[in-house]
Amino acid sequence: MVTFPGLGLEFNISKIAFSILGIDIHWYAILIVIAIVLALIILKINNKKEDVKYEYLLDLSIYLIPISLICARLYYIAFNLDFYINNPLEILNLKSGGLAIYGGILGGILTIFIYCKKKKINFISLLDQIAPVLALGQAIGRWGNFINIEAYGVETTSIFRMGIIENGIYKEVHPTFLYESVADFIIFIILIILGRIRQKNGERTCIYLILYSFVRFFIEGMRIDSLMLNNIRISQMVSLILFVVSCFILVYNNTKTKKQ
């Protein structure tokens, strides 16, 4: 049971959508599939305006999707190593979550780079094409956190507060999944609009990284389940680095273009 007292809303959603031959199909998995399908449809629709052929995108997706998911899982495990060393069977237990988006992004970028080298495709152009649908996928995927009742924040009295029961105790917390989902969808819209305007190579990728890292830095500060390195929140540290580097690249490229 999840409630939003300030909005007068109440939800009672099972983590399991349905079962097939005794195998439970979770909503989280369905949302990931929906995100992937929508991403491929949007890439197809927008492909006429882009540099990389859609056939390459389909081919890339065969490698990109599983590798990104594996890297997202490995990233999460790496910063919870003590737990997984003592509970090795839990490494394969994805039903309770445990995917870190930055791990997926880093694994995805590496996969795209290798693919582009092999196929002789412009790496930055391909990143620009994928950036908008990545933001959309994140917006959809965050609702898996809602259904699993995870990735929420500290207690609050905000009108948007979410009422949950944790270890038998009722508490009202920040619905950080909702904040990030809304922000990611706005980023998606911004990047789609930018895609229809003449722009420099790499601009969409930089703007995605700037906007997402900015949003994630502040939302991560509200969460109670952050991956930690001593007293540092890993996602905040990565967000800060990406924000600074992306801003530098964007300003440098614009300055260089004006001089030319």
Explain what the structure shows.
By secondary structure, the protein is mainly alpha-helical. The chain has one domain. Helices cover 62% and strands 11% of the residues. It is built from eight helices and eight strands. The strands form four sheets. It has a two-stranded antiparallel ribbon with strand order 1-2. It has a two-stranded antiparallel sheet with strand order 3-4. Strand 5 and strand 6 form a beta hairpin. Helix 4 (101-119) runs antiparallel to helix 5 (123-148) and helix 6 runs antiparallel to helix 7. The longest helix is centred in the middle third of the chain and has 26 residues, at 123-148. It is globular and about 60 Å long.
Q: Number of DSSP helices?
A: 8
Percentage of residues in DSSP E strands: 5-15%
- The number of domains is 1
Q: Which spans have pLDDT < 50 for at least 5 consecutive residues? A: none
Major sheet attributes: 2 strands, antiparallel
Q: Percent helix among the residues? A: 55-70%
- Overall 3D shape: globular
> Strands across the major sheet, in which order?
1-2
Q: Termini distance?
A: 60 Å
Mean pLDDT comes to 91
Overall structural class, as computed from helix and strand content, comes to mainly alpha
Give the topology string: H per helix, E per strand.
EEEEHHHHHEEHHEEH
Number of E strands:
8
Query: What is the C-alpha radius of gyration, as a whole number of Å?
Result: 19 Å
